[in-house]
Amino acid sequence: MAVAATLHGASAVGIGAHRYEDNAATREQPWVRRLILGVSLTFFILFVFMPLVVVFHQALSKGWGTALRAVTDPDALAAVRLTLLAAGIAVPLNLVFGVAAAWAIARFEFRGKELLGTLIDLPFSVSPVIAGLIWVLIFGAQGWFGHWFIEHDIKIVFAVPGIVLATVFVTFPFVARELIPLMQAQGRDDEEAATVLGASGLQTFWRVTLPNIKWGLLYGTILCNARAMGEFGAVSVVSGHIRGQTNTMPLHVEILYNEYNFAAAFAVASLLAMLALVTLALKSWVEWQANRPAPAPLGNVSRRS
User: Fold this and answer.
1) Which among 33, 139, 229, 234 counts the fewest CB atoms within 10 Å?
2) What number of other Cβ atoms are within 10 A of residue 17's Cβ?
3) How confident is the model at residue 93 (pLDDT cuts 50, 70, 90)?
4) What is the mean pLDDT of residues 116-138?
5) CA 282, 278, 287: angle at the middle one, nearest 5?
6) Where are the beta strands (DSSP E) in 126-256?
7) 0.90 exceeded by the pTM?
8) Residues 6+ apart with CB under 8 A from 180
9) What is the pLDDT of residues 133-168, one digit of tens each?
10) Are 219 and 283 in contact (CB under 8 A)?
11) Which of 4, 199, 213 is nearest to 103 (CA)?
12) Which CATH number applies to 63-290?
């Protein structure tokens, strides 16, 4: 599972690879390296790079004017706003949950710990369509609580709250799964030392725990945000596909494509692709920051000088 690969895990893999490459006894043959690199690059070009190029090519196939009109259409702008709103609510909620769940699993021993770890992965194993149906069964007109919400004139399904709930569900594990192995690897020594020196629980979290997990936390948040903005299946079930009201960007792209308005569909899709590229750039920057060697303590520098 790609998300489970932590920043520190990736760094350790890189260090291990350098160690084997520097040793003639364990270094791979040149033809093996070229074969593996060739297969990797071929797959990347065929299944990642070319589709991305096709999206931008089709978006501009009828000129910049058509593409600009498509992305500034009132329905498209409403889809962009709803996508940002859903992500803006779901990501902070998952950030709080992710930190709490990671803290509980990495720091505490309690009955049901393994079950909690398994349940965190549930959204990865459940189809997004089923995730959407879950909310329909709970809050829909015929659902468990549907009548109560209808009587109180509260609309969950086929409205913004349902879209937010579906987005929260599918992005549930990203922050937690990034932090759990990181916090387990770091251990509790620093926090116990802070507690022994008199720091309160909140001081320990802000001054010890958070600095230690900040890059992993940012990495998980970026992945969570990327999934929130690109989610289709779960949101499609609970949205109702109402133009200008409950359509997110992926749903708006689908509607335009089904109407054979290909240039407009790819123009809006290019916005999602650009968001993905920005996400990749941020992810690479976080990985670079996390893998940078820590600066030498000032005391060591002064002693050397």
Assistant:
1) 33
2) 10
3) very high
4) 88
5) 20
6) none
7) no
8) 101, 102, 105, 106, 117, 120
9) 988 999 888 888 888 888 888 888 889 999 999 999
10) yes
11) 213
12) 1.10.3720.10
Residues in the chain: 305
Going by C-beta distance under 8 Å and a sequence separation of 6 or more, which residues neighbour residue 145? 138, 139
Q: Taking a C-beta distance cutoff of 8 angstroms, is the pair 236, 132 a contact?
A: yes
What tokens were used for 269?
């899709």
According to DSSP, residue 47 is labeled I
| Structure-block tokens of residue 132 | 């959407």
Q: Which helix (H) or strand (E) holds 210?
A: helix 210-230
Helix (H, G, I), strand (E, B) or coil at 28: coil
Instruction: Write down the pLDDT at residue 44.
Output: 87
Calpha distance 304→282 (Å, rounded)? 36
Q: Could you read off the pLDDT of 17-65 as tens digits, one per residue? A: 666 667 766 677 788 888 999 999 999 899 888 988 888 888 888 888 8
Q: Quote the percentage of the chain above a pLDDT of 70.
A: 88
CA distance 149 to 80: 28
**Vertex 26 angle, CA 22 and 27, to 5°:** 60
For 163, the token pair is 């879209």
Q: Which helix (H) or strand (E) holds 109?
A: none
- The three-point CA angle 95-99-100 to 5° equals 115
pLDDT at 75 (0 to 100): 92
Structural contact between residues 239 and 79, judged by C-beta atoms closer than 8 angstroms: no
Q: Where are the domains of the chain?
A: 63-290
Which pair of tokens denotes residue 158? 């086929």
| Reported confidence tier of residue 2, pLDDT bands at 50, 70, 90 | very low
End-to-end C-alpha distance for the chain, whole angstroms: 47
Place of tokens 């116990």: 192
